[in-house]
Amino acid sequence: MDEMRKWPALHNLSQIGYFHNNLRVCLRQALAATEIDGSTSVAPDKALIHYYDSLLRINTFLMLYLHTEEWLDILIKKYLPHITINRGGSITRYKSAIRDGFGIGVSGGSWHMLTDCEKLRNCLLHANGRIDLMENESEIRQIAKRRGIDVKLDRLQVTSNFLATFAKEVDAFINELQNRA
């Protein structure tokens, strides 16, 4: 695949990171203003700012995940139109296309990270991050521990370190697929 076709996927990925980082700067500024003068005109209180920061990390994770899933769908339909994509599911429905169509291993590396993230995504979307409401509760706990995601009050807490790692894995995965397309 030529560089012009790679650019949109990587550009969109970087823009999601840019959006996240800029909003975090705004949150830190609001928190600093609240701590300096006790003003509530800039931000209601510290707890709300920290809560919003937590939601921002979750939403950024979901945007990165969605970007990857949609990009996979477009890439596979364009370069592998003869391969049937399974209905339902999320990232894992593309497993056979990635393995058979692009010749990329699906037993570890970036693919393993993406399949772990599919389970985390399901927990965040379908149970509002509440691990105890998931049928695969022990698996979610293992993934959270392995991937550096905090669990507080039985809820997933997406960390900044996890987001950075996930973004790097997505970037590496996109590059690998595009180099084989």
Write the layout of secondary structure elements.
Layout: H1 3-37, H2 46-79, H3 95-101, H4 109-126, H5 137-147, E1 150-152, E2 155-157, H6 160-180
Antiparallel strand pairs: 1-2
Helix pairs in contact: 1-2, 1-6, 2-4, 2-6, 4-5, 4-6
Keywords:
mainly alpha, globular, 6 helices, two-stranded antiparallel ribbon, 181 residues, 70% helix
Average pLDDT taken over every residue: 82
The main sheet comes to: 2 strands, antiparallel
Sum up the overall morphology in one term.
Answer: globular
Percent helix among the residues? 55-70%
Number of helices: 6
Provide the gyration radius in Å. Answer: 18 Å
Low-confidence stretches: none
Strand order of the largest sheet: 1-2
Distance between the termini: 6 Å
Can you describe what's shown?
The protein has 181 residues and is mainly alpha-helical. Helices cover 70% and strands 3% of the residues. It is built from six helices and two strands. It has a two-stranded antiparallel ribbon with strand order 1-2. The radius of gyration is 18 Å and the shape is globular. 23% of the residues are buried. The mean pLDDT is 82.
What does this entry show, briefly?
The chain has helices at residues 3-37, 46-79, 95-101, 109-126, 137-147, 160-180; strands spanning 150-152, 155-157. Strands 1-2 form a two-stranded antiparallel sheet. It is mostly helical and 181 residues long.
